[in-house]
From TrEMBL:
Record localization: Membrane
Transmembrane segments: 118-138, 150-171, 200-219, 249-273, 317-338
Gene Ontology terms for molecular function: cGMP binding; intracellularly cAMP-activated cation channel activity; intracellularly cGMP-activated cation channel activity; protein-containing complex binding
Taxonomic source organism: Anseranas semipalmata (Magpie goose)
Keyword Transmembrane: yes
Region (Disordered): 35-76, 624-727
Domain of life: Eukaryota
Name of the protein described by the UniProt record: CNGB3 protein
Membrane topology per record: Multi-pass membrane protein
Ranges annotated as biased composition (Low complexity): 44-54, 666-675
Catalytic activity: Na(+)(in) = Na(+)(out); K(+)(in) = K(+)(out)
Length: 727
């Protein structure tokens, strides 16, 4: 076969090659990580690496836990499958009764501010209260309750009484209350607090069974008037409902309108009672008994309370007094209701009025200083979009009224998910480490309170190319485009809600880095901004987080500085993959070659000659200056040595007093000649070097250094110029 005929040689296995290359890659990554740790000590984790023995011991338990969890899930899933009922050839899922019971089970204590079930119960009691308030006067005055329908009225009354009793015995004794700033949840304490309140006394009076008098005086609804004393529950329901509604002013308007209708209802009942007292149809002022009695009386009550006029004149004294009281009451009630309605509507439109006043003041200011119409239109657009998008001009004004803890809670719910997307503030993991290191959570919370929201109009520059980056931007809503290209109009990338840019500039050293591209708002864009000054003020209190952020900034800068990955390069097979790929030829060297083969090499040599010719005069000047320095040093050394020898000879001559006076002069005379030789050298100043003209020439320079024939004169510099021989 072919495998037997093939000569023995080096054979490779693709699987083994892939494994070896993967091992080499991991070892290189590990080596780079340890190099970075040696360079920057902050990268090393302060936590010790976990030992291997406990991890091996803990490996077996997870399957057991998983089995237990699977059994629990199966047990929970089984009852859900069984709760089905067949009806008309269809299956309907019926939730188990236990879930209803657990949901409907009353807690030991009720929080009246947050428990929605308590609000629902108050609504039921309020419906019963309104039934009594509206129909007790109606049944007492108008002949609507007869012997044929009494049973229905009694059934509804009993249902309302049951609601009153349940509220008295079950719900109200479980309501929590505050005592000295503490929330009391003890059953005994809650019962004592409720029983000692005025609300309990009124509730007890409202459920007293005066209906027993029915057996003596007949079915008269007047014996149920005490049911109207449960007004505290009605007002409590209004407060709790307004607290949970998004647009509470709508309910306030409806409630105020209900007050007006109820007062008109009471007035209509009083008018029918007065007409019945005077006699139906006895005078022109009373009700004549024709048509729908309730609607006719209600119409008269509306015209009287609103003081429209056009009513028949009262005839008797009773009618005159009744009409006067009705007019006075109508003026008072109508004016108070109108004022209350004005307050409700004014509170509902307070923000809109503030927005209009701010916009009007800004427009008048721009008109005073003759601002161009283009700028005025952009300002109006900003006002309109800001108000439509967030319902207010500045969100910080609303949050400033709250305590810091509440501001932080709102900021976490609104902004934490957005800030958590920033790579700079995420937990970072490194190869070879088992633990992840993240920023201090409290530092991130402090940063959330400092974020500023700014709205950019379509076409506004968020940042421009070349300017110093001092802010980080987080897109809350809208889109921005990164522009580049030769003319700066090419759209490189479009960033949408949740994207972050400019985070590296917060920690860049040297006053910030420059922007590399223009960022323009594409449509309306709402951005969060965190500037560098604010971050530095926060990091003063968190030094560990500052070190960690600096480290992360370095890593992100390295990652962003890497070139974009090109097409995959086929890796060499065999052992050649262990040594890595050959580095690419530098671009500068390629540009200098300018071609291939002899032409490129000739061009390189020509450039080298021209460079040498230009640099040669500078080299000659440097050599001459160095030679002069050496000569001066040698002369100074010889001078000092001669002075020392002269001093020694003078000392020796002074010790011989027998010798003549001329002998001491000999060393001075002998020392004079070298002094005379040195004087002209000291007096003469070095001439400035001649100006050497640069250019191309056919001569070559030969520079040499040789010792001087006379002792003590140092070395001699020779410069010779020889003309090149032409071939």
């Amino acid at each position: 076969s072919t495998q037997q005929t093939t000569p023995r040689g080096f054979q490779t296995n693709e699987y083994a090659d892939a494994q070896l290359q993967e091992i080499v890659r991991k070892m290189r990554e590990r080596a780079t990580v340890y190099k970075e740790k040696l360079k920057d000590p902050v990268l090393s984790s302060p936590e010790g690496s976990p030992t291997s023995s406990p991890s091996k011991k803990k490996l077996p338990p997870p399957p057991k836990d998983e089995k237990k969890e699977e059994k629990k899930e199966e047990a929970e899933a089984k009852p859900e499958e069984d709760h089905y009922c067949d009806m008309l050839c269809c299956k309907f899922r019926k939730p188990p009764v236990k879930k209803y019971m657990t949901y409907l089970q009353l807690p030991d204590s009720i929080d009246s501010y947050t428990d929605r079930r308590y609000v629902a119960w108050l609504m039921l009691v309020t419906v019963a209260y309104n039934w009594n308030c509206w129909f007790i006067p109606l049944r007492f005055v108008f002949p609507y309750q007869t012997s044929s329908n009494t049973i229905y009225w009694l059934a509804i009354d009993i249902i309302c009484d049951i609601c009153y009793l349940c509220d008295l015995l079950v719900f109200q004794p479980r309501v929590q209350f505050l005592k000295g700033g503490d929330i009391i949840v003890n059953k005994v304490e809650m019962k004592k607090f409720y029983h000692s309140s005025m609300k309990f006394r009124l509730d007890v009076i409202s459920v007293l069974p005066f209906e027993v008098l029915y057996f003596f005086f007949g079915f008269n609804p007047a014996f149920r008037v005490n049911r109207m004393l449960k007004h505290n529950t009605f007002f409590e329901f209004n407060d709790r409902l307004e607290a949970i509604l998004d647009k509470a002013y709508i309910y306030r308007v409806i409630r105020t309108t209900g007050y007006l209708l109820f007062i008109l209802h009471i007035n209509a009942c009083l008018y029918y009672w007065a007409s019945d007292y005077e006699g139906l149809g006895s005078t022109r002022w009373v009700y004549d008994g024709q048509g729908n009695m309730y609607l006719r009386c209600y119409y008269w009550a509306v015209r009287t309370l609103i003081t429209i006029g056009g009513l028949p004149e009262p005839q008797t004294l009773f009618e005159i007094v009744f009409q006067l009281l009705n007019f006075f009451l109508g003026v008072f009630v109508f004016s108070s209701l109108i004022g209350q309605m004005r307050d409700v509507i004014g509170a509902a439109t307070a923000g809109q009025n503030y927005y209009r006043s701010c916009m009007d003041n800004t427009v008048s200011y721009m008109n005073t200083y003759s601002i161009p119409k283009v700028v005025q239109n952009r300002v109006r657009t900003w006002y309109e979009y800001t108000w439509d998008s967030q319902g207010m001009l500045d969100e910080s004004e609303l949050l400033e009224q709250m305590p810091t803890k509440m501001q932080l809670a709102i900021a976490i719910d609104v902004n934490f998910a957005i800030v958590n997307k920033v790579d700079l503030f995420k937990a970072s993991t490194f190869t070879g480490e088992c633990s992840s290191v993240g920023c201090d959570t409290q530092m991130i919370y402090d940063m959330l309170l400092r974020l500023k929201s700014i709205v950019y109009l379509p076409g506004d520059f968020v940042c421009k190319k070349g300017e110093i980056g001092r802010e980080m931007y987080i897109i809350k809503q809208g889109e921005v485009q990164v522009l580049g290209g030769p003319d700066g109009t090419k759209v490189l990338v479009t960033l949408r809600a949740g994207a972050v840019f400019g985070e590296i500039s917060l920690l860049a050293a040297g006053g910030g880095n420059r922007r590399t591209a223009n960022v323009v708002a594409h449509g309306f864009a709402n951005l969060f901004i965190l500037d560098k000054k604010t971050l530095n003020e926060i990091l003063v209190h968190y030094p560990d987080s500052e070190k960690l952020l600096m480290k992360k900034a370095k890593v992100l800068l390295k990652e962003k500085g890497k070139p974009a990955p090109g097409p995959p390069v086929q890796q060499p097979r065999g052992l050649a993959g262990l040594f890595g790929q050959k580095q690419e030829t530098p671009k500068l060297f390629k540009a200098m070659l300018g071609g291939k083969g002899k032409a490129g090499l000739a061009r390189l040599l020509q450039l080298k000659r021209e460079r040498d010719i230009q640099v040669m005069p500078q080299k000659i000047e440097q050599i001459l200056s160095r030679a002069k320095e050496r000569n001066e040093k040698n002369k100074s050394k010889e001078k000092t040595s001669k002075q020392k020898s002269c001093r020694k000879e003078n000392e020796a001559e002074a010790e011989k007093p027998e010798q003549e006076e001329k002998k001491p002069l000999e060393p001075a005379a002998s020392s004079a000649p070298p002094a005379q030789k040195e004087e002209p050298n000291a007096d003469t100043k070095p001439k400035p070097p001649a100006v050497m003209h640069r250019g191309t020439t056919n001569e070559s320079l030969i520079i040499s250094m040789s010792p001087s024939p006379t002792a003590g004169e140092g070395e001699i510099l020779k410069v010779e110029a020889k003309e090149k021989k032409r071939k």
